[in-house]
Design goal:
Blueprint: E1 8-12, H1 20-31, E2 37-41, E3 51-56, H2 59-69, E4 73-74, E5 77-78, E6 80-83, H3 89-95, H4 100-116, H5 131-135, E7 146-150, H6 158-165, E8 171-177, E9 180-188, H7 191-201, E10 213-216
Antiparallel strand pairs: 1-3, 1-6, 2-3, 4-5, 7-9, 7-10, 8-9
Helix pairs in contact: 1-6
Amino acid sequence: MDIRPNHTIYINNVNDKIKKDELKRSLYALFSQFGQIVDIVAMKTIKMRGQAFVVFKELAASTNALRQLQGFPFYNKPMRIQYAKTDSEVISKMRGTYSDKEKKKEKKKKAQEQVANVTKKPALGSNTQPNTQVTTQVPDNPPNYILFLNNLPEETNEMMLSMLFNQFPGFKEVRLVPGKHDISFVEFESEAQAGVAKDALQGFRITATCAMKITYSKK
């Protein structure tokens, strides 16, 4: 029987060798393009291993993410995504449907939730600011099939950037610069395909403090 649409999506078949903090950052980088994320829960207990929950503020965002990323190769394993069976506690509170019984349950789980609740971690930002604001501030070079990324946070890795850019047609590879964590190159098959990705991800925030700046690489 189908589960009704929900703000929260349940993901399994996640690579369980990834550290929890890196997993949350990567899930955030991948899913925040679809809408505002309220919470991400990923625990490394035996029962929860290889699973995660992503809570969106808007139902349309969770629906879009489920459709677009079903089977996406996340750390070399295809993600299996479905709607969560019940409303997330975060969404229940926003709707005012959070009962006293659930509040008592919450107290018991408080220690776990503090660990799992990424919304309190300053390391994660949001991509809610209009891209046009950032675009106007980035001087650019003539069109090129290679993009130059800068202002990247220290924890950026090749997998994280690949997940962001390989949603766009023509993506070929990410090239990090040894010794410089804040810059990277991304190659596409054509200038036009590179331009689409550049416009879509201009100003994307992998963390709260770092809005990614994208220009065409110098020829």
